[in-house]
Structures are given as structure tokens and as C-alpha cells.
Amino acid sequence: MCRRTHFRLSMAKKEISLEQVVYTLSMIVELLTEDEKRLLLENLKIQQLRKNELAYKDGDLPRDMLCVVTGKLKIFKDGVSGRSQLIRVLKPVSFTGHRAYFADEIHHTSAAALEATTIIRIPLNILTQIIQQNAKLAWFFIKDLSVRLGTANERTVSLTQKHVRGRLAEAILFLRDTYGLEEDGCTLSIYLSREDMANMSNMTTSNAIRTLSAFAQEKLIAIDGRKIKLINVPELEKINKFG
């Protein structure tokens, strides 16, 4: 194991310890030999992103795999009409940036901080070097990418076949299942703008606003700014199921 040290965040006076890094990356680190751990930890970098700051952009060459430590990172794609499509939101501990490298492509999406976010950057040439000699780590990423492909396929069907209400209900329930609820057990613990909700549901912002208002009038949810409180989950699940 490499010497005990600290890694400074690039844009803050705070520090994150080696122990915190190892804990965050535990699902990877536990698969490595001591030499592989040392190689990984000696080459990673830590960065703090401001809200809306880009981690990488569409067209960039992939150089690092990113791991979210704190905060949330949104992955999005700018469409031909200028409207952004929100693809997913990453929470701790999630990885991104490696698919394009493995496919020998440029990035076809952009990643930006949804709020103040801390990320770990792992050079992809170092990661590839370890994967080539570590079958367990290779299988970890094969499974990770396979699960994501399955989820993306399901989302594609939903976004093209469901009506507006079904798509928005699905988005709300997806946010609940992915990011959880606040201490009241009802309020989503992620606060998205109406535009992001619309992009996530493949609809215009005006349609998202109207549908959210309709859900509120039907007492399925309660809205307070960007906060969404779930009131009638069974009915939301019914709308999601039947589209």
C-alpha cells in the first residue's frame, strides 16, 4: 500500500484522506493486488466541481474515468434543436467516462455538476493496464456496462411508447428508487429543474410543467419549488405501468 498521505481538492481548502479515497473506491480496490492498488492510488486525482461546471464535454477524447464522491453529476446530450436530453444523474458512488474509451470513441455526451460535486479522476490508460492483468476487475466493468445497457434499452422503449403522463410518472418513481427520499419518507432527495425533468422524460418543458401541475391537482404529488413530495404512490405506479 502506498504511503499515508492526503489529496487536496483542486478548488477548495478541504482535504480528502487516503482512507476516504480507498473507502469510496472499495468496490474496485478490493479486487486489486497490493501493487495494483499502489498504481491506482498514486495516479488518481481529486477535483471539486462547482454547480454546472463541466467534467467533460461532447467531442472530448476520454482520458479519465470519473467516480462521484459527493454531490451529483448529470450526463446529458445537446440535441440538434438545441434542447438538451438528460440521460442520467450519477450519485455517489457511480462511475462514468470509461465507455467511450473502451469503445475507442470520443465522448458523445457531456457531464456537468448538478450541484457542488467532488469527483475522483482515474487515468484510463492506468485503469486499462490493471484490467489487462486482472480478470476480476474486467468482469466488474463488463457487468457494470451490461446492466447499464439493459436499463438504457428499457428507458428507450418507455420514452418512445408511453404517453406524457406515463413518462413523467416513470421519471418520478425512477428518481425515488435511485436517489431515495428525505427524512419525511415522502420528498424526493434530488431537486431537478423543470427543464431537467422534461429532458429526462423526453418532453417539452411546458408539457412537464402542465403534467406536474395536473399530478399536484390530482393529489398524486405536492410541489414546493423544485421539491416533489409523493402523496399517492400506488396511483403513480399505475400511471407508470399503463403509460
Largest sheet: 4 strands, antiparallel
Alpha carbon gap, first and last residue: 52 Å
- SSE string: EEHHHEEEEEEHEEHHHHHEEH
Would you identify the CATH H-level superfamily of the largest domain? Jelly Rolls
Task: Going across the biggest sheet, name each strand in turn.
Answer: 3-10-5-8
Structural class, from secondary structure content?
alpha+beta
CATH topology category name of the largest domain: Jelly Rolls
Instruction: Give the overall shape.
Output: elongated
What is the CATH architecture assignment of the largest domain? Sandwich
CATH class of the largest domain: Mainly Beta
Number of domains: 2
The residue-averaged pLDDT reads 90
Number of strands: 12
Strand content: 15-25%
Give short descriptive properties of this protein:
243 residues; alpha+beta; Jelly Rolls; Arc Repressor Mutant, subunit A; 2 domains; 4-stranded antiparallel beta sheet; 12 strands; 44% helix; disordered N terminus
Topology record:
Layout: E1 6-8, E2 15-17, H1 18-24, H2 26-29, H3 34-43, E3 45-49, E4 54-56, E5 64-70, E6 73-78, E7 84-90, E8 95-96, H4 98-102, E9 110-113, E10 117-123, H5 124-131, H6 135-161, H7 164-179, H8 194-200, H9 205-217, E11 221-224, E12 227-230, H10 233-242
Antiparallel strand pairs: 1-2, 3-10, 4-9, 5-8, 5-10, 6-7, 6-9, 11-12
Helix pairs in contact: 7-10, 8-9
